[in-house]
Amino acid sequence: MFFRHGLFGKARPNSRRMDEQYWKRYRIRLKNAKAIEGIAKAGELVVATLDLVAQELCPGMTTEEINTLVHEFTLKHGARPAPLQYNGFPKSVCVSINEVVCHGIPGSETVLDGDIVNVDVTSILGGWYADASRTFCVGQVSEEARNLVRVAKECLALGIAAVRPGATLGDVGYAVQCHAEGHGYSVVRNLVGHGIGHAFHEQPQVMHTGRPGQGIPLVPGMVFTIEPMINQGGHQTTCLSDGWTVVTADGSLSAQFEQTVLVTDTGVRSVTPFDLEA
Ligand code: MF3
Ligand code: CO
Ligand code: CO
């Protein structure tokens, strides 16, 4: 690809000019090779952490036990859990069950047979952040809940597939929204994906709804999350009195998958890769 500015040949992902333009216009920090390497290492740890949770999660486990598992595994690998004390969040991981959309606080609640459980892991390794989440089906899950989880996973896959230099954030949101709404589900609007790397939440905001060709153009070196929250019922949410736990307003189920992705010279690379096919 070449830029409008008339730069032919191989795109220079982090030309100082593009860096400056994206910083000035959007407050987006494009990542250089060193940053990408650091974020990808953090991403490997996040993926390994989610794999560990997948192995251990079972009915009867408390969300506090999931927290301990994630916390200790993160420290053992020389990293820090980003959620802990982030804006006062009291735990090291978010665990969001059934109608909980996101930001569930681990505690005495027990995971039950038939629950859908999102575990959202963000690690800081060597100063670099990576963020990913999966929704697990625990035990015998109803067909309607399994369908929701499958479509939420497909929404993430389609969002990632829309990422390439020259596409826009609107293209990403559009891909997610079409798929979710095409299945009769709704897309949460008031929580979004985000730039990440030097910090937990950077610019840009990544909406999971949108129109083709609208929004910020994607350029190599952008690193952001795509993390659609898909509701069985309406898209509206309510925050509980703990100040964190977000639930669906109508009590319907919600499912979410998240990865951190990098815009490359030719397309996209997930730096928190896990299987979205299965
Ligand atoms: N990991 C969440 C995200 O995807 C953010 C959690 S913030 C916390 O952006 F404080 F609740 F941990
Ligand atoms: Co997350
Ligand atoms: Co995120």
How would you characterize this protein structure?
It is a single chain. This protein is an alpha+beta fold and 278 residues long. The chain has a single domain, classed as Creatine Amidinohydrolase, CATH 3.90.230. Strands 1, 2, 4 and 5 form a 4-stranded antiparallel β-sheet that branches. The chain has a 3-stranded antiparallel β-sheet with strand order 3-12-11, with no helix packed on it. A hairpin with a 6-residue loop joins strand 7 and strand 8. Helix 2 packs across helix 3 and helix 4 runs antiparallel to helix 5. It is globular, with a radius of gyration of 18 Å. The chain starts with 15 loop residues before the first helix and ends in an 8-residue tail after the last strand. The N terminus is likely disordered. One cobalt (II) ion (CO) binds next to strand 4 and strand 5.
